[in-house]
Amino acid sequence: MRKKVLVCASTAEHLERFHLPYLAYFRQEGWEVHTASKGIPLSSDIEKAWDIPFQKELLSLGNLKQLFRLLGIFKREQYDLLLIHTSLAAAWCRLAFFRLLCPRTRLVYVCHGYFMEATSEGILKKNPRSLFYLTCERLLAGRTDLLMLMNRTDWEIARRYKLCRRPVFINGMGLDARRYHAAGPETAARLRKSWRAAEHTLVFLCVGEFSPRKNQLELLRAFSRLAGQAEDVRLILAGSGALEPVCRAFVQENRLEKRVHFAGQISDISPYFCAADALVSSSRSEGLPFNIMEALYFHLPVIASRVKGHTDLIRHRENGLIYDPGNPEALSAALQSFIRQPELRASLQERAKLDPKYLYPNAGALIFQALSREETERMKEHV
């Protein structure tokens, strides 16, 4: 009988962007591959896809309904492996798994970033949000066979608070280089022309969903401070989301329309990295951000907030600049340093490279090795 794996994530878009190589791997190894997410991902390697419309609010009654759906699916399908991604989907899938009495099913949780706030040593900040999520993780730890973590802060949190019997450190899901291509100079020039950016104009690129976590409004506040000091700069915001109207209103109120361009949701981001001079991220929290890895893959320096994930990938004044989050003045100063110091800019551009360990299949090999070791250990426990 073929083994069955269910790969869960909050959205189909997440599965399509990060997990297609893994779905293909399981299928090639003879597994029956199922997915559960909000929406149906596009992949010929999926044999059955469950549309589970998770709500973004963790305690939503809609998510409670999905819990009972998941429990029914788990009981009926009798999976050998549940591979769970993203904090929201992971919480509800593990709650459903709590009620499942199926000793053959293994549950592996790949943490893409805890919502808890902590120091770099993993010491939790004692605020209600962090304590709430810690309680949830402790409750669910007993039904998690293997926990994979992809930044040093989350790794220290998991070890300090004993959030799994077998935690393992991975280098993210791995950037699949096959998805990217080098755009020619003509393509880059056309893009820059559409942004009214001359050859000497410096272009900052920001990629991500418009949300409180990605915090584009802080970037816009910092950028607006450059208005009277650095005329020949552009900011390109790629993505969509609930806070986009708020950001557009800020741009209008501060008369930044000529310098800030809203690019919308981009299916092919490669030309944007080729046309920009630096990536900027003002996120409040991250796991191991793909946009940073993408920028480094294209040899683009990064200006980013000092949060977990960013600090795993960026070394201050080597391949980028780090500023303290929640401080638009500090971000504005970092942008000005990049603009006004051509020697620093050249040095950052020269050193902006992605470590090969973050590329798929290198990162994938680490994940598959961990899965194989976990299965071996589990078999020993049941002998």
Provide the descriptors you would attach to this structure in a database record.
seven-stranded parallel beta sheet, single chain, six-stranded parallel beta sheet, alpha/beta, 383 residues, 15 strands
Strand-helix topology:
Layout: E1 4-11, H1 12-18, H2 20-28, E2 32-38, E3 48-51, H3 61-77, E4 81-85, H4 87-98, E5 106-111, H5 128-141, E6 146-149, H6 152-160, E7 167-169, E8 175-176, H7 185-194, E9 202-207, H8 216-224, E10 233-238, H9 244-253, E11 260-264, H10 270-275, E12 278-281, H11 290-297, E13 302-305, H12 310-313, E14 320-323, H13 328-340, H14 342-351, E15 359-360, H15 362-381
Parallel strand pairs: 1-2, 1-4, 2-3, 4-5, 5-6, 6-7, 8-15, 9-10, 9-12, 10-11, 12-13, 13-14
Helix pairs in contact: 3-4, 8-9, 8-13
Task: Spell out the helices and strands N to C.
Answer: EHHEEHEHEHEHEEHEHEHEHEHEHEHHEH
Query: Biggest sheet, strands in spatial order?
Result: 3-2-1-4-5-6-7
Note the beta-strand portion: 15-25%
- Main sheet characteristics: 7 strands, parallel
Structural class by helix and strand composition: alpha/beta
Low-confidence stretches: none
Radius of gyration, CA atoms, in whole angstroms: 22 Å
Shape: globular
Helix content: 40-55%
Mean pLDDT value: 91
How many strand elements? 15
Describe this structure in words.
There is one protein chain. By secondary structure, this protein is α/β, with parallel strands linked by helices. 41% of the residues lie in helices and 18% in strands. The chain contains 15 helices and 15 strands. It has helices at residues 12-18, 20-28, 61-77, 87-98, 128-141, 152-160, 185-194, 216-224, 244-253, 270-275, 290-297, 310-313, 328-340, 342-351, 362-381; strands at residues 4-11, 32-38, 48-51, 81-85, 106-111, 146-149, 167-169, 175-176, 202-207, 233-238, 260-264, 278-281, 302-305, 320-323, 359-360. A 7-stranded parallel β-sheet has the order 3-2-1-4-5-6-7, sandwiched between helices. It has a 6-stranded parallel β-sheet with strand order 11-10-9-12-13-14, sandwiched between helices. Strand 6 (146-149), helix 6 (152-160) and strand 7 (167-169) form a beta-alpha-beta unit. The chain starts with a strand and ends with a helix.
